[in-house]
Amino acid sequence: MTRKKAVKAHSPLRVLALGAHPDDVELCCAGTLARCIERGDQVTIAFACKGDTASMDLPGEKIARIRSREARNSARLLGAELIEMGLLDYHVDVNLETKKLFTDVIRQAAPDVIVTHFHTEYGSDHNNTFILVRDAALAATVGNFRASRPAVSRSPMIYMWEPLGGLGFQPEIYVDITNTFATKARMLNCHRSQREWFRRKGGVDFLKYIEVAARFRGYQAGVTLAEGFIALKNWANIGTGQVLP
Questions:
Q1: Residue 227 lies in a domain
Q2: Is residue 245 part of a domain?
Q3: Quick one: 226 exposed, middle or buried, by C-beta within 10 A (0-12, 13-18, 19+)?
């Protein structure tokens, strides 16, 4: 008689996806987050900036309110918590004030895993978000680094998602999103103001883009659709084993 090998049950994780702007998370890792939700993880989405510059027609205050509503709708669709950090676009500077802000978000979410921007993306908001996530992930565990919230006990593992266009990025980890791509597309479609912005500013339909990108990474991984990631190889942030779905 052949004995079946026992399958180890998944212990639910706390996952924080932290992007610079509303829609960054949906563009780059929403299929993976949907997989996390399916296996019982607690997912939090956070974004640093209000998205107040991403309109050719509306004043900053109005487009920021629209984008906040779009982000709430997307997070609700996934079943994720949402943290809006409230910075203005192009104001993600690396300084003590923003480091405390990012530290508080990490302490609030208390993640086992963070997914965030690649370290060489376009624009200072994206690049500095990565730097601040990396530094705040350590600061969040240090009790004598004073912010608004108390320190957490563990350093999270950090994974970087693929930037738009995939330039200079070769994934080391692939997540099969064949069965969750529809959720990713619905989440991204909540950001209707940005679909129009992408079309008018760069001639790009981001719903078509995410399918092309996912199919390409899927070809590499031997599945239909995939998202790719690179683990941040820092002491205390790399962890052991495979924690993404």
A1: yes
A2: no
A3: buried
DSSP 3-state of 128:
helix
Host domain of residue 27? 14-231
Question: How far apart, in Å, do the first and last CA atoms of the chain sit?
Answer: 32
pLDDT digits (tens, 9 = 90+) for 149-181: 999 998 999 999 999 999 999 999 999 999 999
158 lies in a domain?
Answer: yes
Sign of CA pseudo-dihedral 153, 142, 138, 140: positive
Give the total number of structural domains in the chain.
1
Evaluate whether residue 242 is within a structural domain: no
Q: Are residues 13 and 154 in contact, defined by beta-carbon separation less than 8 angstroms?
A: no
- Please give the Cα distance from 209 to 212 (Å, whole number): 5
For 4-62, the pLDDT digits (tens) are: 444 457 789 999 999 999 999 999 999 999 999 999 999 999 999 999 998 888 999 99
